[in-house]
């Protein structure tokens, strides 16, 4: 095996969702090249050498056993995967992603396809500023000056401005910064399955709603008007107790928490099932409890059509659910969307999973994970 080396990279984008392109590049480089050990702040700068939209740029360090030409091959593959189409024509142009090797340890390499150190790095502030975040005292093996000195001598007049955006070394690190995610949805939407998969893959503490032993639930589906109030009160008491216990207990061995419900669902369902005077009383009790519980940083709502929900309910085969009427599911969906409108400050991500099978198809599951991660990046968490 080759000796482990620190490779230094510059990444940039000025097309499409620039931040997401940078983050995807970091994840792919970590998967294909080696372990990402450090990453800079994200900077915004004007296009260099041509007239085009501004770039977002960052630098990162990767520990790798792969030789430089092997890394170059992987870079070209990653750029193509992210949608970059290279042109044989000379000159600069806009790009969805641009990945350059700046340094490979202290090595000096000159070939037809690759030059290390990068021959232009000392001329570009959009490279030097983020590089100074992660390697301020690294000496250029040809010029014999560290990054801070190169900045002082750089004649580039353009500005590279630090942004509030953040990039993450791994998907696990990104999820760990979220703290607490709630996966919500109507009956049969798949929230428990998704929460369980995310917790397992990214080392999260799984908080699942316990409801199968509720004695009022089967009775409710047989006689809604009679059993609605005791059902909703028992759910509220159980959810409050469980939710308070589970979300207040920090697990040193887990990176974050992910639940398949949020306690606010109690109010949504109660509004659908209870009579007006019952709901007024219920809401007073709910408001007292809701002030005390932990709120998710991101609230993911899995939306499916009523037809698909009924199909899922039938397939999972819980006897007491088989009599659920389409109108009831419609009212639950409406209740959730009214809730989202009432709390615009909440970080709500609505994902239409009607055409996705995230149980059987890994690519569908990763589509949802990517949506959550992209949403987190937009929030600059």
Would you write up a description of this structure?
The strands form 3 sheets. Strands 1, 2, 3, 4, 5 and 8 form a 6-stranded antiparallel sheet that branches. It is elongated, with a radius of gyration of 26 Å. Helix content is 44%, strand content 17%. The chain has 2 domains: 5-162, 7,8-Dihydro-6-hydroxymethylpterin-pyrophosphokinase HPPK (Alpha-Beta Plaits), CATH 3.30.70; 171-378, P-loop containing nucleotide triphosphate hydrolases (Rossmann fold). It has 381 residues and is α/β, with parallel strands linked by helices. The longest helix is centred in the middle third of the chain and has 25 residues, at 224-248.
Shape-level CATH architecture of the largest domain = 3-Layer(aba) Sandwich
- Globular, elongated, flat, extended or rod-shaped: what is the shape? elongated
In round numbers, the mean pLDDT is 91
Please tally the helical runs, counting DSSP H or I stretches of 4 or more residues: 13
Low-confidence stretches: none
Q: Would you tell me which CATH topology of the largest domain applies? A: Rossmann fold
The radius of gyration is 26 Å
Please identify the structural class as seen in this structure. alpha/beta
The percent range for helix content is 40-55%
Top-tier CATH class of the largest domain: Alpha Beta
DSSP summary, beta strand count: 13
What is the H/E order? EHEEEHEEEHHEHEHEHHEHHEHHEH
- Total separate domains: 2
